Amino acid sequence: WAGAEPTTSEFTVIMHGPKLKTIEGIVMAADSARSFSPLEKFGQNFLEKLIGIEVPHKLLERVTFVDTPGIIENRKQQERGYPFNDVCQWFIDRADLIFVVFDPTKLDVGLELEMLFRQLKGRESQIRIILNKADSLATQELMRVYGALFWSLAPLINVTEPPRVYVSSFWPHEYHPDTHKDLFLKEEISLLEDLNQVIENRMENKIAFIRQHAIRVRIHALLVDRYLQTYKDKMTFFSDGELVFRDIVEDPDKFFIFKSILAKTNVSKFDLPNREAYKDFFGINPITSFKLLSQQCSYMGGCFLEKIEKAITRELPDLLGSIGLGKKP
Known about the structure:
alpha/beta, Rossmann fold, 2 domains, four-stranded mixed β-sheet, 11 helices, 44% helix, 12% strand, disordered N terminus
């Protein structure tokens, strides 16, 4: 939810269970079988804001929903007591579909929502926009709000094709009289069909994202290797290692770090990470703690980079192909 005031303050995980049951966050994190134990790293303040609800519903046998706290677009948004954006990122990284829900009476796009969309960069195909409570507005007002929503979101979602927007009132009660009931019902059905399609394609999507991540890992490994090789080439017996590497990190273009990756590999220039990110990366991870990729090969195990490239070019595409042909992967 996005608006001037928060609508919920907890992260609520709705999952399948034999009977209706509420589970405290500290219990969820302590139960290793539930796969929520990594959330302990966000602290006890966060776990107090985490709730699990088990519901005996057939749909939940195939999917788990996570309802995040509402986006707060006012000056008190810092008063959460836990790293909100980091927690959101944890769930984003594990999501197959991401719904961003707007209340037409509280349409407010501010800093916290902008931050969220920055976190969603690269996952635009998974985003669905929901304009809820649509039957609370007259037709002309609803059209105005719909247009204002697109106008506000356009700078945040920099893609050729904008995300699908669903307009309805998503609750089990009757729509308000004198509203577009047929349209709202069709929108609800379309949303359920969309969700079902994502569930059906879940395996393919997972493999595609694993491959996408592998490509990023490969590029990162090549860049670190290039930084390290440049450092070794520039070092002499009398050199100050810290000064030498600082010079490389401050101006990698002077040493053709990124250009050499483009020249010697099939990496796209659009996939290269931000140069500034490596200042922070090497600030935490000293260059001397790395080994060259050429030294990470063994007779029995092969080479680290070759394994990743084999997965990207052959193994993962073959796996996708086998699913497409209806074979058991």
